[in-house]
Write a structure and sequence with these properties.
The chain contains 15 helices and eleven strands. The chain is an alpha/beta fold. Strand 4, helix 6 and strand 5 form a beta-alpha-beta unit. InterPro entries: ABC_Transporter_SBP (IPR050902), ABC_transptr_periplasmic_BD (IPR002491). Pfam families: Peripla_BP_2.
């Protein structure tokens, strides 16, 4: 380990000299750093994994064996966006930078589809395997992402067990739906989500109809205040505001929105349960189901 670290330090000193000599030496830099990178481990289970995406962070934390996951992104420690902020504190934090990830000497990097492409491209050129996960847009995607994480971490049994538990809880929640009131998802800047989004699928699973779908919004788009008012839903679900003032969130306090919500049920979206395609979406569904029962007078 000491010998490998010394080798890497030497390589990066030489890399700094190459960078100072001009951008036309990029190919030489890539070759030099490749010389210092660890060899791929073939079909063996990766034992030093770095994740640089909030959603892959959480999937990896749920499935990886003890000591297998080395680093997660800094977002994983933010309780406003991460459902596993407490657990994330036990891992090395990264900011998705190629140099910091490389120096961790991982034998696998897990990234999101919209992670920094320059980072993932550089890591691949350096011979480090990178697995990219697209965002989940449905509850079926949640199952697929869990199983894929199990495959790449060689933890298939654990992933299948997690999926079986997910399916059982989801099936139970769906069986409890007897009435379907209408709801609107309304976020900063008047953004809304239709049925073909993960948030829209959470809404449907909780027993609501998405009023914006009736208004012609199938995916994500801005919903004008006038359209919001004309949909006349049974509930408006808004995002939880972040600390500090924000003009994008100010419209949630617009007089038209306040007037619309007066005398109607309201719910606040718990962001960290809604953001990623993980089993924590079930918690969001369960909380919304409680709200639905309060509106309709249903009993368990």
């Amino acid at each position: 380990m000491v010998r490998r670290a010394a080798r890497c330090i030497s390589a990066f000193r030489r890399a700094s000299e190459i960078l100072r000599s001009g951008p036309h030496h990029a190919a030489a830099l890539t070759a030099l750093l490749s010389w210092a990178s660890p060899a791929a481990s073939g079909d063996a289970a990766p034992m030093r994994v770095a994740s640089m995406n909030l959603c892959t962070d959480q999937l990896a934390m749920l499935i990886a064996q003890q000591g297998q996951l080395h680093s997660v992104s800094y977002l994983a420690s933010d309780p406003r966006s991460s459902a596993m902020a407490d657990k994330a504190a036990g891992y090395v934090e990264n900011h998705g930078l190629a140099e910091e990830i490389y120096l961790m000497q991982p034998d696998l990097v897990i990234a999101g589809q919209y992670s920094t492409q320059a980072t993932t491209a550089m890591l691949r050129r350096l011979g480090i395997p990178v697995e990219v996960f697209p965002p989940a847009t449905s509850l079926e995607d949640v199952r697929a992402r869990i199983l894929r994480m199990g495959d790449i971490l060689h933890r298939q049994v654990q992933a299948r067990e997690l999926v079986a538990e997910f399916d059982a809880r989801l099936g139970h929640l769906r069986q409890q739906v007897t009435q379907r009131p209408e709801a609107v998802l309304y976020y900063a800047n008047g953004y809304t989500s239709g049925d073909s989004t993960l948030a829209g699928q959470i809404l449907l699973a909780a027993g609501f109809e998405n009023a914006t779908t009736r208004a012609g919004y199938g995916a994500g788009a801005r919903l004008p205040l006038e359209v919001l008012v004309m949909t006349i839903p049974d509930i408006v679900i808004t995002s939880r505001p972040y600390p500090g003032a924000s003009r994008s969130e100010a419209m949630l306090d617009h007089p038209a929105v306040r007037a619309f919500r007066t005398g109607r049920a309201g719910a606040t979206m718990t962001d960290h349960d809604w953001v990623c395609g993980t089993p924590y979406v079930l918690r969001a569904i369960e909380e919304l189901a409680e709200t639905r029962r309060a509106i309709t007078g249903e009993t368990r």
